[in-house]
Write a structure and sequence with these properties.
Two copies of one chain form a homodimer. By secondary structure, chain A is α/β, with parallel strands linked by helices. Chain A is built from 14 helices and seven strands. Chain A has a seven-stranded parallel sheet with strand order 3-2-4-1-5-6-7, sandwiched between helices.
């Protein structure tokens, strides 16, 4: 937690591309404290990130080699004069505050050049959720001049699925034996993947990688496309042999050009913001209302009656609503 | 809408197995009217359906031959001295009040024997949702002595997915060219299917049916099982040639024996009831609170600011909450 600094410090620092100010600003938007949130709001309203940025969510099972893949892809983007930010989101782990070292060792190149900024994002789900603070961190990075932002997340839970919804492109990273791999993933992760990279397709894994590719190909035929003018792509690659990495990079570049050309990007992003607004609203409502002790107790009582069949689910829901909104009981019972 | 009858009329009628009373009781639980709901509550609390019943959801794309399949399976259950109820749920159609004729013609045997009761369920989503009134209709049928209840629904929307959650067994019916078929289905329908029947696997369709089977087999390998001690089954069948119908019936019978033997059935059912309670509660809360004109207007104002980037989604959500629950504004603004 940094000492309280004014929004102007962060805004000016970020516009100068000051990495320390950027890092502190990200910590600020991750904070739940009201005083921090107050400054964060002013900060976010004060920055003007450019429009021509691109956000890539990289998700997949642990050990799929997401970081190495980002390292390889990032190098190529930098070669094309882009500046890269990497936000490693791991909501499922409450320990990965320490994973910054892990990230730096897994991305030695990106961790050592000025054209890249590597930073682990919060594990603590802020009230707005991981997606919320990640989305804000992305805008800070973009305002600081990093025009390609990678969001690395482990696709095992709803929080991760939400985190992916901040991206312009979803890259799912799997390894051979995809069947078993996918088992551990949150259902629906495959549906939202624009590109699937089957990584570690080298040496003894080549065969299972090919099997995974053909199986996934047949599955993907069954799914609606993720966007207009884009057919899901499945590619095999290896960060060890570098086979397929250039193809993957070209595929991402093609997707980016199409999206930027289509003009849909700002529209998609504001749709994402509206979705997060609604999710945040519902979550806060539940939390605010169903969190009250009197309501909790009522809900628990009713749950028992529902299970023994003496009350119907809908009638029980109605009873809670009545207790909440019937004028005479509003300030007494609940 | 029947004239207002006391709960005792329905309870006694249902316990006698009076089909007219049962039909009227189902109409009653489908009603949104407060006075009807009052009687319905008393009715549902007054019946004592036996525990050893079995609920089969039959879902799939329109034209997959669900009704003919139910007709064939129903005959076999009746042969084994079961009594069958069929509830045809079609929330996606607002016209299928007239589909009772359709159901009777598509199920001539079940529509003509005492051992079966065929009835279309509501199209109007009651506040509790289709699942809610369907679940109540099921209990009425069971109390009337129908121990095997089929719930037929078209798996194209969330309402249908919810409707499926009233069942002990989910049977998904597809036809050859499953790829294209699944496109039209709600995502997730495959995940919840215990048994997949590829129907119309006869004559010219045999080939595409086999292709569908093998494709689905490879997909299903990627999915977690639906229940402990059950591996998803995919079977081909034809109600025309009757090929595979006996196998399908045996598969369902095996599933039923396992579930009944496991003793999990009552537990699963009460979990379903709790889920419906929570869904109903959240839906009512949203409806009650976000439905207020003042709140709607505020949300719309904020949506514009979120899109132009001048407000962050989470801060907007917070503002709505504050307006709703800050004492000084509770009775004025909202």
């Amino acid at each position: 937690m940094p000492e309280q600094l004014p929004a102007s410090y962060f805004i000016e620092g970020i516009e100068r591309g000051d990495r320390v100010a950027l890092g502190r600003a990200i910590t600020l938007v991750e904070s739940d404290l009201a005083r921090d949130r107050h400054v964060a709001r002013e900060l976010l309203a004060g920055i003007r990130p450019p429009q021509n940025t691109f956000r890539i969510a990289v998700t997949g099972v642990p050990g799929a080699g997401k970081s190495s893949l980002i390292e390889s892809l990032g190098q190529r983007f930098i070669r094309d004069n882009h500046r890269i930010a990497v936000l490693a989101v791991d909501p499922s782990s409450h320990l990965s505050g320490g994973s910054i070292l892990g990230d730096k060792t897994r991305m030695p190149f990106l961790s050592s050049v000025d054209a890249a900024f590597v930073r682990p994002s919060p594990t603590r789900g802020r009230l707005g959720g991981v997606a919320e603070s990640t989305a804000e961190a992305i805008r800070l990075c973009e305002a600081a001049g990093f025009d390609i932002v990678f969001v690395e997340t482990v696709g095992v839970g709803q929080a991760e699925i939400d985190a992916v919804d901040v991206a312009d492109l979803v890259l799912l990273v799997l390894i051979g034996g995809a069947g078993d791999e996918l088992q551990g993933m949150k259902r629906g992760i495959l549906e939202i993947a624009d590109i699937v990279a089957i990584n570690k397709a080298d040496g003894p894994n080549s065969e299972s990688a090919e099997l995974a590719r053909s199986t996934l190909q047949s599955i993907i035929r069954l799914m609606p496309e993720t966007r207009p003018n884009w057919n899901r792509r499945i590619l095999k690659c290896s960060t060890v042999t570098t086979d397929g990495i250039d193809d993957l990079f070209d595929c991402i570049a093609t997707f980016r050009e199409r999206v930027l050309a289509s003009g849909h990007l700002p529209d998609n992003r504001s749709k994402q913001r509206l979705r997060r607004f609604h999710q945040s609203l519902i979550a806060s409502l539940e939390n605010e209302i169903l969190g009250k002790p009197a309501v909790k107790a009522l809900v628990e009582r009713l749950a028992i009656q529902i299970q023994d069949g003496s009350v119907e689910p809908q009638d029980a829901a109605q009873e809670v609503l009545t207790r909440l909104f019937a004028p005479e009981s509003k300030n007494t019972d609940v």
